[in-house]
Amino acid sequence: MLFSELPIDHRIVKNLSTAQLSDLTDIQAQAIPHALLNKDILAASKTGSGKTLAFVVPMVNRLLTQRALSKADPRALILAPTRELAKQVYGVVRQIVANTTLQANLIVGGENYNDQAKLLRKNPHIIVGTAGRIADHLNDKQLFLHGLELLILDEADRMLELGFVEQLAIIHSQADHRKRQTMMFSATIEQAQIKEMTTVLLKSPQKISVDASNKPHKDITQIFYFSDGVSQKDEQLSKILRIVNQEQAIVFTATRTDTQRITDLLNTLHLNAVALNGELLQNQRNQVLQDFSKGRFSVLVCTDLGARGLDISNVAQVINYDLPKFPEEYIHRIGRTGRAGRQGSAASLVGKKDWLSFQAIKANYLDDVNFGAVDGINTRFTGIKARPKKVLKKVYSKPAKIVKKAPKATTKRINTMGSVDIGHAPIKRQARKIENNSDDSRPDTED
């Protein structure tokens, strides 16, 4: 199906054509028609499926074709879990609203708060931001959502993982009216928290599921390598990583320290690498992403900070130097390649410390596991075998003999009622002897 076949404003079709976008992906073909009818949407789709346009296109079409509820308040709010993803979504929004009267602003943490307040006073039609910073502006009365027409949550599962439940509740309460349309996109819609949030935010939503199993793309070739440790991982990385025809690669590590160390290692091999981690200031992070997206660097070395929000079609290879702690992050990591119908490859180095993570990834997402070997490198580690559970034998013992207890000896109680108290101690006085005073015993007297 083509975008030109949808009942949308011609300016949107023109902007999509300028961006060389003509065919709808599966999630777009299923979500956009329902969203155009102002229905609430609950959609599950894998990374890189084109879900951003699935909510941006119907959003912009509504704003262009329907009358605003309020002239002062923003008409649409898009929430993303991270600053990087919010910036990516903001870039798509700007493409689609080009040459229209609609104005969009980016409101995320790490940027100057007062400058953002000035932008909000200009009453933008669309706001793309992170839940934390939006809630801050609401609490400070810098932003009002009484006239909000569309509330869109991108990667809602990730927002819940990052602990934005309270902020989402604040945003919902500020724009809780019957005319609001809500669209929620998530990697999965089966989590208990997602279901709970759905009952609060959505009204009779249209449920859409595209590749709900969250399996990796068929366009991504996956391979794993055993590794004996950090020094061997460095050697393996230098041989696995290959940049061909100006393609790019992303290397994921577990720690911020390793991002810079590996970047320095790759630069000594003339691979033109750059590091991205949480220690950088927001403007520095923005500059790194901008330089990488423009092809000024061939390799991006980052933590899970970059696992979501990077939409760069030129990334041909993803390497997991360390496996993530949570298995779902593996899907989002390798989803940085194989985008927009292109082929990609994902290589993972599995050491002793990565084994539990590998087992979790295998149990949840992998049907077949392909282990390879790097030429010239021999590894001793080949996995950890599960220890067999010990079977406890039942020990049958003879029944214990019943020993009859001997009866207690009875003691004769002493009657103390007939005693006489003397001082503080009861003493039984002996009976007094009575003398015989008969006549025979009297002394003789004279008559």
Automatic annotation (TrEMBL):
The answer to whether UniProt assigns keyword Hydrolase to this entry is: yes
Domain Helicase C-terminal residues, every copy: 236-392
Q: List keywords of the entry alphabetically.
A: ATP-binding, Helicase, Hydrolase, Nucleotide-binding
One family from Pfam that matches here is Helicase_C
Q: Helicase ATP-binding domain location, by residue?
A: 32-207
Compositional bias (Basic and acidic residues) spans? Answer: 432-447
Cellular component (GO) terms are: cytosol
Q: Which CDD domains match?
A: DEADc, SF2_C_DEAD
Q: Say which family it is in.
A: Belongs to the DEAD box helicase family.
What protein name applies here? DEAD-box ATP-dependent RNA helicase cshA
